[in-house]
Amino acid sequence: MKPDKLDFFRALLQTRINELLNGAERTVQEMTDEQENFPDPNDRASLESDRNFELRIRDRERKLIAKMQEALKRIDDGTFGVCDSCGGPISEKRLQARPVTTQCIDCKTKEEKMEKQRGE
Prior knowledge:
With about 120 residues, the protein is mostly helical. Helices cover about 75% and strands about 0% of the residues. Helix 1 (about 5-35) runs antiparallel to helix 2 (about 40-75). It starts with a helix and ends with a helix.
């Protein structure tokens, strides 16, 4: 892949990582700032449910950040945009849609069909 494209993807990944980290920081700030006392158990339950939901989202984002950091490492070591399964190139359109991908669309489709057949 050309250096200018690699720079584009590096900037894209870094921007997304920063956005996710800022969102996580806001969540922590909001959860530590809230000193609300709800005498009604239903209100308290709603707050706890909302917090649990928010934490699940942040956990998924944490995992996505790890994948993005791995993609940045692949850019550095020259394997970004190369399919792990077949060794062929991953299309730029696919990388723009999902820059953390490690498989070309053909290999990913085959993998998903196999998973479906196994019942996963």
